[in-house]
Design a protein that fits this description.
This protein has about 110 residues and is an all-alpha fold. It is built from five helices and no strands. It has helices spanning about 1-30, 35-40, 45-70, 70-80, 85-110. The longest helix has 29 residues, at about 1-30. The radius of gyration is 26 Å and the shape is elongated. It starts with a helix and ends with a helix.
Length: about 110
């Protein structure tokens, strides 16, 4: 089940690229009879690379802002709290840390005596 979710999440990225190009096609078809369509079609060797470059720049800016503002980290933290497997792993890690601290404190007490 988890493997399927990973496959699904990875495929969403590629579906997003396909949607981007389909939106571009719909946008061009919506410009019927508009002077901008003639400019875009006649100068496609300039407008298409410019649109791709603008898309890349926009994506980088959004990704940078997401990293700086910490939306992704907060989302992952909330998801891990609601995932029963992650909760179990975190509880196990806390138990191990508590045991380690008690062992260290016992060793320190023995070394002092």
């Amino acid at each position: 089940m988890i493997r399927w979710k990973i496959y699904f999440d990875r495929s969403r990225m590629y579906i997003g690229y396909i949607q981007f190009f389909l939106i571009g096609i719909v946008f061009l078809q919506s410009l019927k009879g508009n002077a901008w369509k003639a400019v875009i079609v006649n100068y496609a060797y300039i407008t298409i690379p410019a649109a791709l470059i603008l898309f890349i720049i926009f994506s980088l800016v959004v990704g940078y802002l997401d990293t700086k503002l910490g939306f992704r980290e907060e989302e992952l933290r909330n998801l891990s709290k609601s995932n029963p497997m992650m909760v179990e792993i975190l509880e196990s890690m806390q138990e191990i840390n508590n045991r380690l601290k008690s062992i260290e404190s016992d060793l320190n007490k023995e070394s002092i005596q």
